[in-house]
Design brief:
With 254 residues, the chain is of the alpha/beta class. It has a single domain, classed as 3-Layer(aba) Sandwich (Rossmann fold), CATH 3.40.50.720. It has 9 helices and 7 strands, in the order βαβαβαβαβααβαααβ. The protein has a 7-stranded parallel beta sheet, with helices on both faces. β4, α4 and β5 form a beta-alpha-beta unit. The longest helix has 29 residues. 44% of the residues are buried. The mean pLDDT is 96. Bound molecules: nicotinamide-adenine-dinucleotide (NAD). The site of nicotinamide-adenine-dinucleotide (NAD) has 26 residues, from α1 and α7.
Length: 254
């Protein structure tokens, strides 16, 4: 075997959801550097157009859509399959976090929107992508949970944490079901990564405490995560499936 960071990804089609977000943008750029062709998706088309024009490499596309809409998911798969040749990787970073300072403030809308975006659409997107991957003989599905799947979250994120616990359980079920088709399914659990999701409505004291309690001494940056995503998509991770990868700078140890 020859060893390189993006082994096996040259020319492959990689779907990156949440591509305009903090982590998604870094992930899309990292895949571009491996020679993969990125199909970037997020809510806003014009932001995606700029993103795609700036990605390293060639052959990338961007499509603005809401992943909570099933017709939009169909369109994403159609584009990946009919216009790009079929997906090899799904790197699914898109998610929604609504913080509430007390449980009494949580609304039913908070509950529905976070479960729909973080858990329900993840199931249907993974199933659609896997069905396309099966025809090609395999692929890689990389989902995103959070340290909150285990801790219950910090900073008013009870519902988000529940949704991310569901992602871990779901990914293990998907790994069992898709493994026989040559598809690995893994989940990345970031600790704290410096993005707008982390910082929105976060009490500065909570941020400082998390930073001070992280053995590596800083809150992570998106590129502290993107390399793990590329590794899981690469040939080198071919025997890893059903794993939840803790990327927290040592803040949590499990
Ligand atoms: N930043 C952190 O500290 C942290 C910690 C733990 C887990 N995570 C997880 O990492 C992943 C990336 O987080 P981030 O910090 O980059 O978040 P972010 O908010 O910067 O990016 C998320 C992206 O998802 C998109 N999105 C949301 N709902 C969508 C929908 N219905 N359809 C299409 N796109 C939609 C948003 O537009 C946004 O661009 C998420 O799954 C998040 O839960 C992040």
């Amino acid at each position: 075997m020859s060893w390189s960071v993006g082994a096996g990804l040259e020319g492959k089609v990689v779907i990156v959801t949440g591509a305009c977000g903090g982590i998604g943008r870094a992930v899309a750029s990292a895949f571009g550097q491996t020679g993969a062709r990125v199909l970037a998706t997020d809510l806003d088309q014009s932001t995606l157009d700029t993103l795609v024009s700036e990605l390293p490499g060639t052959g990338h596309r961007g499509i603005g859509l809401d992943l909570n809409d099933s017709d939009s998911q169909d369109e994403l798969i159609r584009l990946a399959t009919e216009e790009m040749g079929g997906p090899y990787v799904l790197a699914h970073t898109a998610a929604l976090l609504i913080r509430r300072s007390s449980l009494d403030e949580v609304t039913e809308d908070d509950w529905d929107s976070q479960i729909d975006t973080n858990l329900k659409s993840t199931f249907f997107l993974s199933r659609r992508v896997a069905n396309a991957m099966k025809k090609a003989g395999g692929g890689r599905i990389i989902l995103f949970t959070s340290q909150s799947w285990m801790t219950g979250g910090f900073g008013g994120s009870a519902v988000y944490s529940a949704s991310k616990g569901g992602v871990v359980s779901l990914s293990r079920s998907l790994a069992r079901n898709f493994g026989p088709h040559g598809i690995t399914v893994n989940t990345i659990a970031p600790g704290q990564i410096h993005t707008s999701m982390l910082m929105t409505d976060l009490d500065p004291a909570v941020y400082e405490r998390m930073r001070d309690e992280t053995p590596l001494g800083y809150v992570g940056e998106p590129d502290d995560v993107s390399g793990v995503v590329v590794f899981l998509a690469s040939t080198h991770a071919r025997y890893i499936s059903g794993a939840t990868i803790n990327v927290s700078g040592g803040y949590l140890m499990y």
